Every structure is written in C-alpha cells, then in structure tokens.
Hints:
The chain is mainly β. Among the domains are: 4-172, no CATH class; 305-381, no CATH class. It is 2% helix and 43% strand. It is built from one helix and 34 strands. The strands form nine sheets. Strands 13-14-15-16-17 form a five-stranded antiparallel sheet, with no helix packed on it. A five-stranded antiparallel sheet has the order 18-19-20-21-22, with no helix packed on it. It is rod-shaped.
Amino acid sequence: MGQFRYVDNLNSNNEVSAPTIVYNPNNNTVQISGRTAGFISYIQHQELASDSYKNNQSLNDSDYLEMDGKSPTGDNSTIIRPANEYKSWAIPAYTNPSSEPLIKDRFYWVYAKVSKTTTNGTYLVETTARTAFEDSDYYYLVVGGLNSEHDGIRGWSPLFGFTEILPGQITTGLIRSSDGNSYFDLAAGIFHVGNIDSYLDWDSERLAIHNARLNITRSDGVDAIDLRPDGSGMLASNNIFWDEDGNLTASGLIQSALVGRRFIIDPDSASLIFYDNNNTEIGRWNYNGQWGSTVRVVNGNINTSVTPTVIIMTDNSGASSILGNYLAGELVLNATGSKRVRFDTTSQTYLIAQLSNLPTSSSGLASGSLYRSGSQVMIVP
C-alpha cells in the first residue's frame, strides 16, 4: 500500500519531493525530516477514498476510490480529483529513540502509521513486516526499507509512489536510469542527464551544461551556434567568434542602435559612420588603406561651444600636426612648437591669414617656401 505521494498541505494536489532520510552510524539512529517549517510532512493516498467521497458515492463498505479510467471530459486524459476526495495525513518529523538503537545487521521497514478516522499519522521504523489493513484503527503504509549496515552505510530503498498507465500515457513521479546517473524527477520539476564527467542538469533555477558542447545547426546543416566547454564559441554561423581567452572577432555591421542617433562600424567600406536623431548621416571616418584616413562632416556644423574640434594627424615618425577650429570662424593648422597657420573667416569682407614664426631668410628653404623680409612676405623662387 505504498500508492501515496507527498503534497504541500492536506488540501492540495501539488506534489512535492519526499523528506530527507538520514542514518547516523555513530548512535544507530535514523532521522526523517519534515517538509515544512513546523517539521511536518503531508501525504496523500492515491487509492484510499476520503469519508466525504465514500458518503457521496455510497461506498460505505469500501476503502477505495472508484477508478473508472475516465476523465470528466470523457477522454483518456489523467483523472485529477479534488484533494478532498483523497485520504491525507500530517506526519511530524521522526528520530528513533536513543534507547532503541537500530541493530547493524538487521533490515528495517519504514512505515507511515496513519489513522483511519483522522488526518494524523506518525513514522514507524521496525523489523516487523506488516500489512496495510491489519489494524482496525490504523493503516500501515510502506515508505521504504533500510538495508543492514555495511561500513557505516545503510542502503535506502523508497517503496512509495503512484504510477498510472493508460493508453498513450504514463503518469508517475520519477524516472531513473539503472545506474542512477540520469533521472527525471517529474514531481520536483528537475532532471539530470549524463554521467559524472559530462551532464545536463536542471535544478528548477539553473540549467547547467558540464564539460559538454552545445551545438545548434541551421536547416541546411551549417552550424549556427557552437558553445564549447573551454569557454570559446561562435554565433551567427561563425560571424561572431571568440577564443578561450575572450578575444572576439566579429563580421558584419556593428551599430549602437537600430534608428536615431547612432554610430555604425561598416567593415565593407572600412568606415565609422555617425547619424543624428533624424537618421541623417552627419559624419564619416573612412580608412582606404592607400592614403590613410579621411574624415568628412556631412550637412552639419561643427559645434565648438564647449570643446574645440581638433583632429590630430601623426606620421610614422611620431611627428604630429593639428587641424582645429579653436574659435568660431577660425581654422588653425598647428604643427609642433609655436609654428601655426591661422585663417580667420569672421570678417565678411576679407580673409585674415596669420602665419606665425616665418623664417626671416630664404637660406636653406626650398622653392615655393614663404619667409619674412621686414614687413613683407616673400616666396622663394
């Protein structure tokens, strides 16, 4: 009569996992925990009918539910009866008395001794084999068996549960492989598949893949996603790839947003492109490989109200030049030191050009170079 299950209260059909059973070889005691904060477990028998159900169904002479194999809708789906149609009991946690230690070489039965007239019960651990209906006041429901002790260990064999087999379906609480490495605990909503070295595990909160490779292929057989146990992997059919050290390689466009103000990295044109909130291109930084980089401002005004716009150009030797507009209406070319060329366009009638630190002699200058002779600017012929 082990056709019962653990539920979360007396008036519930919500199945929960069984309490923990622990054997202590130091004092030869067995402890059975409770499922709730009050150290109480609740069991619901799947075949014994409650008194209210028997009275409603005129089954006063029978302890059993009518199991006609039909659901209320008439199909072959599993029957889910109201919780009050089943017999249920509250059973407190248990530890066998220290004055009655378990004998090491004996096999012990663990029973749920439950009342036939109330919802009270208790655990019973003894060597006597009992039948369910031998007592006029109690049912003896088999919870499991404790094997004799070997090297401080007692094997535990649970002998309770309910399995219903109907055409096209099986209703049960636990499916386990013969080696115990793989199981589907349907009552607790958890599973573990694999072996000690490699496995897939779900504990109701976290899905763990241990020492295994996750591979998803497209309909044409090409790998779409490949995640490896060394930490490397790829997405989008290898367009995004990273190695075990986290070094990332990505192919295709990279953009900071789908629309509006954003930037786009376009590997095909080797460009960094900027868009405003109106989805209008306002700037582009392009590298063409042969002539270096070019920067283009499109249909926009350079705003220097906070920080001057400056472009620094450096050659292979490390020497640098600066192109910037330090003030509104100015364009400044500034090399190292105090050498500077300034064009002031604030005047509406003419252009002011300021050339700082021009040579005062043509000596050593190439043809076409500028130098100052007094107040005049000369060109080397």
